[in-house]
Amino acid sequence: xxxxxxxxxxxxxxxxxxxxxxxxxxxxxxxxxxxxxxxxxxxxxxxxxxxxxxxxxxxxxxxxxxxxxxxxxxxxxxxxxxxxxxxxxxxxxxxxxxxxxxxxxxxxxxxxxxxxxxxxxxxxxxxxxxxxxxxxxxxxxxxxxxxxxxxxxxxxxxxxxxxxxxxxxxxxxxxxxxxxxxxxxxxxxxxxxxxxxxxxxxxxxxxxxxxxxxxxxxxxxxxxxx
Length: 226
Hints:
The protein is of the alpha+beta class. It is built from six helices and eight strands, in the order E-H-E-E-H-H-E-E-H-E-E-H-H-E.
């Protein structure tokens, strides 16, 4: 499955108006002409005044056909005309990702089932940059040694994918928690587990990781993942 991830950066104070128009006009037009939205989130910690959203495609050629349909949709054109005067967006980034076999989400339209407790959700969104040629060894160690420990201690894994287009040699994945305190407690328990130390030992010698970046996200009210 392919995932298109977009991050839009807005001028301070202008994101709420853009989001309102997207929720009422642009989002419905996109989901009607493309594929259903998977998740949409605002950045709580990291570079703020940003919105991150993901949309899946089982057939990547369907994206191109959908873009043609969307551009011809009167409601999409209305969304563009109504948001242009707001002047909200200062930057846009798009990545094409491909899910790994152990990603919970694998198909378009797969219903999201929330397993964490409570009504709130905080998403720990991570991007790991790897040295060329070393990501597969790290992923193999993660699947066999690291992920079982995280499944035991952490919240809910939402998706796990690697970049297909955009900055390559990246893994992009997200875990959901009921609160920031929940995240902190769970990650402390993971770090104290000797099995996590074994994973760190197994991957430390690979020299695979170049950089790690974390965003804390909150789902918007209309996000399917929330």
